[in-house]
Amino acid sequence: MPRSAFDQLAEPVRRWIWQQKWPSLRDVQEKAIPAVLAGGDIVISARTAAGKTEAAFLPLLSRIASNGRSADGFAVLYVSPLKALINDQHRRLESLCEACDILLHKWHGDVSEDAKARARKRPSGLVLITPESLEALLVRRGREAPRLFSRLDAFVIDELHAFIGTERGMQLQSILNRIEVATGRERIDRIGLSATLGDMHLAAEALRPGAGGSVSIIEGVDEGNGLKLQIRGYAIERPASADDETQDGGDERRDPFGASSVPDRLASDLFRFLRGRSNLLFAGSRVNVEIYTDRLSEMCRANSFPNEFFAHHGNLAKAMREEVEHRLRDDPRPTTAVATMTLELGIDIGDVETVAQIGPGFSVASLRQRLGRSGRRPGKPAKLRIFVPEPVAGPGDHPVDRLHLGLVQSIAMVECLLENWCEPPADAGLHLSTLIHQILAAILQTGGLKPASAWQLLCGRGPFRNVDKGLFADLLRRMAHPDVRLIEQSPQGLLMIGETGEQIAESHELYAVFMTEKEYRIIHEARVLGTYPLSSPVAPNETLIFAGRRWRILDVDDHARVIAVQPTRAGKPPYFAGDGGAIHDKIVSKMQDILAGGNVFTYLDTEAVGLLNAARSAFRDLGLHERSVIPHGEGVLVFPWAGTRKLRTLLAALLASELKGSAAWHVIEIQEVDLEGVAHHLKRIADAPPPDGITLAARLAQPQLAKFDRFLSPELMNLVTAKERLDIPELPSVASATLRNLSRVV
DNA sequence: GACCTGCTGCGGACTG
How high is the pLDDT of residue A247? Predict the structure, then answer.
């Protein structure tokens, strides 16, 4: 008989599995156990709730158990992006660790200082920690790092996909590297737990930057039960502006289907499909979450049903979000959470009947994560319904409205999902903001280091691979500049913390690398409902929809940053600012194929089919089947059929040619020019080598998107914009593709 | 035309 995975586990681990009365090990666990026991870097990927945690920890605890228990260092460091996930995992691992006589420590901002001090005093066993708490530990107690971590057997990174390509991911990679260097270990095993992405080699590279090829990849077989899928279209008449009920009007006309209301037919369909079961409704933005929750709750009340629709987004108080999660997971009453991406990550909410979504969303990766929330019970397929409202254009409306790009993008994204493709994470970034942070952290951890060893630590061996020695020196000079004073250099040449650096080091600002906005707290009686951005002014007596309910503002205390509210009958949607995202090239190019082609998509409802046919006719009427630039009014419309970064780059290049225009959703509109004029400029851009990106970036607004961007010089900021927000190398080929067939016309 | 995440340290006084 072959030796099964189970037999390879340590005796106390096997005994614990017996006690759980599991019928068998899951597929991903069978595969992961021998791999983890053998050692090395591993990515374990499977859908949410497929047993990834146990797949890593059953063999890891077997490894530690055979090493014997000691108190001279932690054995495993588990890093999670969410405190809530640490609390979940602590509950799941408690009895297993107890059975193995291995200590288990929770370590994040809500854990008492006392518990952390005890763990530090006699370091042993498993630590479940956030990147920020780990950063705090290194920065505040850098000299203890060798004692705490020299005996580490492995790092476990949960939700690895959530870290890839982000500032926080760069910080985490840097921290892991700093620990390896501080303990004098060449490499400590890294085990990443990830959702299944299109190309798992990118996850491997994220786990071990520069050596992704040496990482083993374990993919759990999807035990799913198939997919039931529908896209529903809603042709929505534009409200005549004379009927506009709101006093402050302007926004309403610009965005009739966004922030103001839910079209009646859409509302009644949502109510019909969702009520009476447990579902997730992804509404796209926090404002939409509020509007849809309010509307659906009102429909419950109007029909004398108890409410079963609840809001869930990042500005709602944790306690309120947890009530919704708890009701979904443990309460038999039907519950629909109307949510933003807060319910995409691995928080345990059990299985839902249907995943519904308003509009196309922003990425296929996100769509896939959402879908994994449904169809987990045996014999029950995952169900996805996408509801797409489309304005029906009348004469005189903008031609782009006739293309129904929301519906076409929804189809493109579903096609990508069915092809098993999803967006690879971006990796071209310089991440200078986070590098500034890591330079400060490394100085604090070590007490001071030479510029050459700082470069080697962070860029040579560490994750900031795109920063060469010259750029690193520029950055250090900027950090030491008299206007900035983040660092200074000692007579011996050591980098030391400067005056501004001191101020940051003394505050909470030091630990997290992502940007946050200052906010008011919204309070009803003694209860905190959530937070509201300071940048959005509100006044007493104003009404507000928040947490899916209607309130009147009693008082605004700007000093204490508190808004007091009481329930009321009327309310208007809240205001949250957003950043705007970037859609991938492949999706936009597929949109062009869908509009130009004649494929039938069986998952469309009748109304969506009608809208798609109308869009395809408009595509031909406008001549877009033959060329990508068409006349419009006094100017032209340019359709590069490329993703957001390329679109933005082409616009910047055209503006640099002294043209006037702007970019909207997938389209560039240029004013006061004819086809011939635009063709001339496109041809020049297509025939020239890629321009100097820094000069092009200097023409753009430079929003400080990352936390420490405010310390960068204009030159360094232009460099960041050129690398991270534009796509300079591809500009000539984008221009040339856009130009294709235009010569026949002019 | 967006969304999400996180967070010191210390010693001495007091209580049971």
Answer: 39
Instruction: Give the pTM.
Output: 0.92
Residue A439 has pLDDT above 90, yes or no: yes
Whether the CB of A427 is less than 7 Å away from nucleic strand B comes out as no
Confidence of residue A256 (pLDDT cuts 50, 70, 90): very low
Write the DSSP assignment of A249-308 as a string of letters. THHHHH-TTTTS---HHHHHHHHHHHTTS-EEEE-SSHHHHHHHHHHHHHHHHHTTPPP-
Q: Which numeric CATH code is attached to A5-219? A: 3.40.50.300
| Alpha carbons A420 and A680: distance in angstroms, whole number | 40
Measuring from the CA of residue A287 to each C1' atom, give the nucleotide at the shortest distance: B2
313-332 of chain A touching strand B, CB 7 A cut-off: 313-315
The residue ranges of every structural domain in chain A are 5-219, 227-233+257-390+397-418, 432-506
Q: How far apart are CA A221 and CA A233, in angstroms?
A: 34
Per-residue b/e over A253-266, b at no fewer than 16 CB within 10 Å?
A: eeebbbbbbbbeeb
pLDDT at A252: 36
pLDDT (0 to 100) of residue A746: 54
Is the shortest CB-to-strand distance from A576 to strand B under 7 Å?
A: yes
Measure the CA–CA gap between A477 and A457, rounded to whole angstroms: 18
CA–C1' gap, A363 and B1, in angstroms: 13
Asked whether the domain spanning A227-233+257-390+397-418 has the same topology as the one spanning A5-219, the reply is yes
Query: Would you tell me how many other CB atoms lie within 10 Å of the CB of residue A149?
Result: 22
pLDDT at residue number A397? 79
The CATH number that domain A432-506 falls under is 1.10.10
Q: Taking the CB of residue A640, how many other CB atoms lie within 10 A of it?
A: 25
Q: Which nucleotides of B are covered by protein (CB under 7 A)?
A: 1-10
Strand residues in A104-178 grouped as ranges (E):
104-107, 126-129, 154-157
- Domain at A227-233+257-390+397-418: CATH code: 3.40.50.300
- Token output for A202: 């990118």
